[in-house]
Design a protein that fits this description.
With about 260 residues, the chain is α/β, with parallel strands linked by helices. It has a single domain (about 30-255), classed as Zn-dependent exopeptidases (Aminopeptidase). The protein has helices at about 5-20, 50-70, 85-95, 130-140, 150, 165-170, 175-195, 205-210, 225-235, 235-255, and strands at about 30-35, 75, 100-110, 120-125, 195-205, 215-220. Strands 2-1-3-6-4-5 form a 6-stranded mixed sheet, sandwiched between helices. Helix 2 (about 50-70) crosses helix 10 (about 235-255), helix 7 (about 175-195) crosses helix 10 (about 235-255) and helix 9 packs across helix 10. It starts with a helix and ends with a helix. About 40% of the residues are buried. One of its GO terms (molecular function) is N-acetylmuramoyl-L-alanine amidase activity. It catalyses: Hydrolyzes the link between N-acetylmuramoyl residues and L-amino acid residues in certain cell-wall glycopeptides. It holds the Pfam family Amidase_3. It is an enzyme of class 3 (hydrolase).
């Protein structure tokens, strides 16, 4: 998607977000669920599992629960199997579907020597304060594995911090709603599952920057932590994660929909 098309989306989004609420009768009709990584992009690795497989299992379970509990909402997946989906395409899928909510599922990781770190955190698109820049670059680094990434991303280079100037133009105009939803997810993890919360963070994650709707990326646990790796791979753990995200969606829907 070219910059002029993105700016058009952003202009329309600004008009919508400037109003106190959505139009009368607004309902959440479409949710896009994004299983992070996939194919030749495994993401983070633990002692016995990979991020791409965990994120896909959680994404499919979340979609199944939504279809069962909220049949009036259309569910779209960015992938349903172990395939490589370009980062730009994930956001494009949501934009083309006029989605009302974008949820990306990921696992967190720390370098060797930090295996004790654990917890859940949820990201929203941000303007990349310096202390967050490294994490954003690491997450966006997948695009270097994609063919013609410079043309697809209008010259964006994930290893060059100066290109975040471009991303600042694409900042998510639904920031407030994204933060509200992210907080609901974090609160749900804490209250329902007694998970350790690392909070809601603003980062320049490319897939979120390009979404023209409220969008979050939720890190469901540290695959580098032995205890959490077992938890996020277990049926019990994945079911609890899904139930917590679903509870957040339910609360967000109740809050955002206009009768």
């Amino acid at each position: 998607m070219k910059i002029k098309n993105l700016l058009t989306i952003l202009s329309l989004a600004l008009i919508c977000s400037a109003t106190p609420s959505f139009a009368q009768g607004y309902k959440i009709k479409t949710i896009v669920i994004d299983a992070g990584h996939g194919g030749r992009k495994p993401g983070a690795s633990g002692s016995f599992s990979t991020e791409k497989n965990i994120s896909l299992k959680v994404a499919l379970k979340l979609g199944a629960k939504l279809k069962e509990e909220m049949p009036d909402i259309k569910i779209i997946y960015t992938r349903t199997k172990d395939v490589d989906v370009d980062l730009y395409r994930r956001a494009e899928i949501a934009n083309e579907a006029n989605a009302d909510l974008f949820i990306s599922i990921h696992c967190n990781s720390m370098p060797p020597g930090n295996k004790g770190i654990k917890g859940v955190e949820t990201l929203v698109a941000g303007s990349n304060r310096l202390k967050e820049q490294d994490a954003a670059i690491r997450e966006n680094a997948d695009i270097k594995l994609e063919k013609n990434y410079k043309s697809k991303y209008d010259g964006y280079d994930p290893s060059n911090p100066s290109t975040f100037i471009l991303l600042s133009l694409l900042k998510n105009t639904f920031r407030d709603k994204s933060i509200k939803f992210a907080k609901l997810i974090q609160n749900s993890y804490i209250e329902r599952d007694k998970r350790l919360s690392r909070g809601v963070k603003e980062q320049g994650v490319l897939v979120l920057q390009r979404c023209g709707m409220p969008a979050v990326l939720t890190e469901v646990g540290f695959i580098s932590n032995t205890e959490e790796e077992k938890y996020i791979n277990s049926e019990k753990g994945q079911d609890e994660i899904v139930d917590s995200i679903f509870a957040a969606i339910k609360a967000y829907r109740k809050n955002i929909e206009v009768k």
